[in-house]
Design a protein that fits this description.
alpha+beta; BirA Bifunctional Protein, domain 2; 2 domains; seven-stranded mixed beta sheet; two-stranded antiparallel sheet; rod-shaped; binds adenosine-5'-[phenylalaninyl-phosphate]
């Protein structure tokens, strides 16, 4: 029996595939297998009672050992065949931990703005990221030869459309759709062919605001701007209003926020101590006309919040390039798990 066991162990160790293991099973435990025949042909007549007992116990042990080894080998072979079939399955890897999703910092600021504006009676509309040249430029009093186009170079698609350079592209679109009076914001992604630095990206977010009604003045515009900034920053912030030129507003302004990193001293993020945050102004009569609104009857204001830059100021993000870095560790710092 010891010889059989030794021979069996050698054979099973050499068997790798499921077929080879089956052959070993037949060789030892099959109807004409070595162990089966050994048990069948044992000559009990020459054994004492004690010898018979010992023989029986040892034979059972051998059978059990063989059965167990065959089973184990078969299992191992199944596993290695599966692994062989799908090379990406590595059974030694730890299990997949489930990570919970969280809101992106820009999404959080966008949602906050939407809530504040909705409280002031604005509707939230989402424009087109892929726009026509007409809505992005011409309707906004920026004809093809206007130098303002140079500052907003963009990506041109083969179908003649462009990736919008600003959410202002939704102004005339919404006037065509809803007419006046209107009070709306358009948050969304914009694209520009841009030299990238700590505060400029080629893909960034803005939130446009548009109000068209009777007797709208700069006073209305300033009141709305003040309300937003105090709601978003939940503290007093220093702002400055200076003249700014945009062909689609008259008069036009730049509302700058005093840099919250350096307190206005000047740093790599802001440059001169001020962050250009909300360009704005009263809507140019030509834009109202492009939207089929009579400028003699209606007036309005518009503004374009730099949403990405607002998120930078709010969360203390010094470099805009983090947003598009794809580094999950960046996002994890701000996440509000829903
Ligand atoms: C505009 O895009 C105008 N459409 C804004 C406007 C709307 C004026 C309505 C008047 C009335 P400007 O190019 O300055 O303006 O961009 C607006 C804001 O978007 C900037 O103040 C800045 O905060 C943000 N911004 C512009 N370019 C980038 C960029 N490359 N990366 C990140 N933010 C940017």
């Amino acid at each position: 029996m010891d010889n059989i066991q030794k021979q069996f162990l050698d054979d099973i160790a050499a068997a790798v595939t499921s077929d080879q293991i089956e052959q070993v099973r037949v060789k030892y435990l099959g109807r004409k297998g070595i162990i089966t025949l050994f048990a069948k042909n044992a000559d009990f007549s020459k054994m004492t009672v004690d010898e018979k007992k010992e023989f029986g116990v040892k034979l059972n042990e051998l059978k059990n050992l063989a059965t167990q080894k065959l089973q184990d080998s078969q299992q191992m072979s199944n596993v290695s065949e599966t692994v062989g079939k799908s090379a990406e399955l590595d059974l030694t890897l730890p299990g997949n931990a489930r990570s919970l999703g969280a809101l992106h910092p820009i999404t959080m600021v966008q949602m906050e703005l939407e809530t504040v504006f909705e409280g002031m009676g604005f509707r939230v509309l989402y424009g087109h990221e892929c726009e026509t040249e007409f809505y992005n430029f011409e309707a906004l009093n920026i004809p093809a030869d206007h130098p303002a186009r140079d500052m907003q170079d963009t990506f041109w698609l083969t179908n003649g459309r462009i990736l919008r350079t600003h959410t202002s592209a939704s102004q005339v679109r919404s006037l065509h759709r809803f007419g006046a009076p209107i009070r709306a914001i358009f948050p969304g992604r914009c694209f520009r062919y841009e030299a990238i630095d700590p505060s400029h990206e080629n893909t960034f977010y803005q939130c446009e605001g548009l109000v068209v009604d009777k007797d709208i003045s700069v006073a209305n515009l300033i009141a709305v701007m003040k309300t937003i900034l105090s709601e978003v920053f939940k503290r007093n912030v220093a702002v400055r209003l200076r003249p700014g030129f945009f062909p689609f507003v008259e008069p036009g302004f730049e509302l700058d926020l005093q840099c919250l990193f350096c307190g206005g001293k000047g740093c790599p993020t802001c440059g001169d101590g001020w962050i250009e945050l909300i360009p704005c102004g009263l809507i140019h009569p030509k834009v109202l006309e492009a939207g089929n609104i009579n400028p003699g009857e209606y007036s309005g204001f518009a503004f374009g919040v730099g949403l990405t830059r607002l998120a930078m100021m709010k969360f203390g993000i010094r470099d805009i390039r983090h947003f598009n870095s794809g580094d999950i560790r960046f996002n994890e710092q701000f996440g509000v798990i829903l």
